[in-house]
Amino acid sequence: MDLKYDVTVIGSGPGGYVAAIRSAQLGHKTAIIEKDKLGGICLNWGCIPTKALLKSSEVYSTMKKSDYYGVTAENVTFNFKKIIDRSRGVAGELSQGIGYLLKKNKIDLITGNGHIVDNKTIKIKSDKKDTIIATKNIIISTGARPKELPGISFSEDVWSYKQAMTPNKMPKSIVVIGSGAIGIEFANFYNAIGVSVNVVELADRILPNEDNEISEYAKAEFEKQGIKFHLGSYVNSIIKSKDTLNIELINNDDKKHSKLNAEKVVMAVGITGNIEDIGLERNGINISDGHISTNEFMQTNVQNIYAIGDVAGAPWLAHKASHEGIIAAEHITGTQTHAIDRANIPGCVYSSPQIASIGISENEAKNKYGNVKVGKFPLIANGKAKAISNDTGFVKVIYESTTGELLGAHMIGDGVTELIHGYAIAKNMEGTEEDIINTIFPHPTISESMHEAVLSAYDIPIHYK
Fold this sequence. Notes:
With 465 residues, this protein is an alpha/beta fold. The chain has three domains: 3-146 and 272-342, FAD/NAD(P)-binding domain (3-Layer(bba) Sandwich); 158-269, FAD/NAD(P)-binding domain; 353-457, 2-Layer Sandwich (Enolase-like, domain 1). Helix content is 31%, strand content 27%. The chain is built from 13 helices and 24 strands. Strands 1, 2, 3, 4, 5, 6 and 19 form a seven-stranded mixed sheet that branches. A five-stranded parallel sheet has the order 8-15-9-10-11. α1 packs parallel to α8 (318-333), α3 runs antiparallel to α4 and α3 runs parallel beside α6. The chain is globular and about 70 Å long.
């Protein structure tokens, strides 16, 4: 055992590599163990490549209506293979970039599967040989994988997000199971390039984690684009007949059966933590609902072992994982840090229109606080949105009536994922309505809608009544 480290990170996703870099910055001799490509699911198969796909479909959609802008573009087409190749290329470049960051910070990269022997020892299994390393601290960042439905497994016809991102050819029709962020983004991408799309959702509304009003508005917009929704239903069976999949649905309420036909199915029904074969049971590390249990500083119940990111539970977001990585690294060092605040983590859906939110919904706020102030501002009343013809959507805020605390903010519209951080900062700094009301927003910008929504909550809107 000649390899000794202060901190060893298992997994190089957005939580793992950030934890490793922060540990190295704080003076620790650091190693990171990765069995596959640097960057984890987010960079290679999630956050980044899906945004590349969605950008291609957005450009195609815009070019089809270019005449509206006074620009002539005849016979607009697309090359499906180039769209896929570009997406993979972007992921590859960024993965290489993480390798550079690790070298720059003098972090040792060890290839293989990390298995925790005890809280001071890790065994790395690889094709070449097994390696044993000694470490003072361990950060588990093994991520998560997509769930399957009972009796329905991933196959060449039933796709996970990986298969949906790299098909050999474009399907003519798909059924997406699940209308969370992943399901909606794939539905949006494929619909925009001409694929017939049906979405099946067990809940009675799409995007069930979003504010009700956002869900309703989004559904209406997606239906205008041609996406069909089947709510309050679940997939009972998928049977292949020649080149067609026969998908049987059962309605939750009346138990009536119905059928859909499609060439492919995309299953996006959630994820479960990668907790197997890493030594959790052997070391008595607590697990709950398929994820590792931690405290607010990402410590497990075993001394010197931390867990971050998707493997540590919801919300399953890359930026949450990265922040947890910083907290864990700083807590190990004894550096003054802060506890993770899961109530103040923004979430985004990169469809068209985009969706972004932070905090609680209007219904949750009313149930918890009773009297709240709600403000809304439609983007159609925003000058910049009108000028660039991105005026679909609205901004909504919820305030606690007595204290002026921002309880929640919800947006739908093109580009809103680049705006939500403003409300995130306000919540993190415990700002009140006065702080935003007294802030000067640049004109013309869509961000002015954030200001106007707060004005509306306090009955002093300027540009909309």
